[in-house]
Amino acid sequence: MTASVVVVGAGPRGTGFLERLAANLPVLYGDQPLDVHLVDPHPPGGGRIWREEQSPLLWMNSMAEDVTMFTDETVRQEGPVRPGPTLAEWAGIDGQTFPSRQAQGAYLRWVYEEAVAALGPAVTVHEHRTRVLRIGGPREGRQRVWLEGRAEPLSADLVVLTLGHLDAEPDAEQRELADFADRHGLVHLPPDFTADADLSALRPGEPVIVRGFGLAFVDLMVLLTEGRGGRYDESGTYHPSGREPVLHVGSRRGVPYHSKIGYTWQGERPPLPRFFGPDAVDALLKRPGRPDFRRDVWPLIDKELGFAHYHRLFTAHPGRTAVDWPDFEEKYAAADAGSPELHALVAAAVPDPADRLDLEALDHPLDGVRFASSDALQDGLRAYITQDLTRRHDRAHSPDLAVFLGLLSVYGQLLRLGDVGGWWHGFFSYLASGPPGPRLRQLLALSDAGVVRFLGAGITVERDEDKGVFRAGGASVPGEWTEARALVEARLPEPSLERTRSPLLRALHRDGAEVSASGLLSVDPADGRVLDREGRPHPRRFALGPHTTARASGAFTRPRTGGPAFAQNDACARAALSFLRDLACRPLSA
């Protein structure tokens, strides 16, 4: 009987797994026959999020030169390095541009086709444009995989789940908001992928309350402005089409994610990891009980990011420091994170407070800031965004890029700790995965044109039963409220195996798969095997991607940054191939 693997999910993670399967197959499995079944209702390569059939106005959130699907020697993996082109090299475009998602979808389709070809003639790939409903079968035997629209299940020796981001049923608050909207004839759009949301009910000229100021908001902004016929002239001024609604946007922080940094690295890199590396993670894992993120992990991250920041400041901008780097480094290493001694050291060594790293202040930029009126808030937010754009495109502030590299290093270490909660992922995205600079310049133009209005920080949404409208207010302008007949939750659904719309994951949960406190599928960080509620790894079921406790940073990997997601794909592919090889060597009676 031919060995068989079912891969559920044909997007970037499924494609990356196939690339690693092909790279490791000659050594670990040879030329034995193998069936690979790829199941996804969306096109292989791009999958749902990166499919080519979406608005050309939507951009990637990374520069073309910063996107690769291929490993290099910086990846800590056992399998062979198989180099390949970045998106910029493959498409022949300027590496500093932010390409469309359509372009990325075409690149991913090519990578998928290359991976399939590299599997060789002994491997047959079967594409199934449908969904997996459930998986059955004993731990010690072949798995049965039921597909929507197919009576008989697929039989598989192994199943690999590469499902990507998950849809979720609304939580209690969203159900209440939806019920209120239904009763009063209002529009309520719950958390969703913006490109998939039906925006037609948002009427021209009418106010829309938008809760969320991250990347989902940027997509919403684009589709409701340029997507409705508006345009920017050569000076950057926005000329409305008249079909735009008025977007009143606020969030917990009250500001958009920081702009992508608009320059490349030059000079000496900070030697990372330093304070949060494998030894530190080993020590955390050896402690009794699960490490507490704020108490045990965050101080190490704080110190690691501070080290990256000050290493760059002292080595690239020594004129803004008051002591020599070796002296500072020695004392910095000896001081506890957040301690008075560390604060005193930094204050003495770095004269300008603007050159010091304060992560708590970065996370809460409007805390304690109050504006006299809504108009004053608009001026204040425009000044904040302009300042952020200027800083993120000025090499004089290159310690910001060092902190970005530190964030990538930290993420690579956190994978071994499993689920660390949702706050860290939000903080990472806010600092390191913000919109391209041109998008924030467009936001400023839309604010000038009156198409976007800022609500500020600490946004709350209320339901006014008497008036039959939504009301939004925040801490930035106390006592001022905005009313609207439409509310958009501009963010992705929170991961939740209890509320997921995936029948496959609901069934896995019912059958005993372990779920983390944040609603993620628990997996062994070493190779992605799915864990049950006793912590046992399933010998025949694997999972990779953002629906798991070993989710990696961002959607794609920058060249020469270690690529933790690549290492995960490699470890999973090698474990799968080793299992299949050993299975083929067993006596028939086994």
From TrEMBL:
One of its Pfam families is NAD_binding_9
Q: Which domain of life is it from?
A: Bacteria
Name used for this protein in its record: FAD/NAD(P)-binding protein
InterPro entries reported for this sequence: FAD/NAD-bd_sf, HpyO/CreE_NAD-binding, L-asp_N-monooxygenase_NS-form
Taxonomy, top ranks, is: Bacteria, Bacillati, Actinomycetota, Actinomycetes, Kitasatosporales
Q: Which residues form the FAD-dependent urate hydroxylase HpyO/Asp monooxygenase CreE-like FAD/NAD(P)-binding domain?
A: 6-165
Query: PANTHER family, alphabetically?
Result: BLR0577 PROTEIN (PTHR40254)
This protein's species is Streptomyces noboritoensis
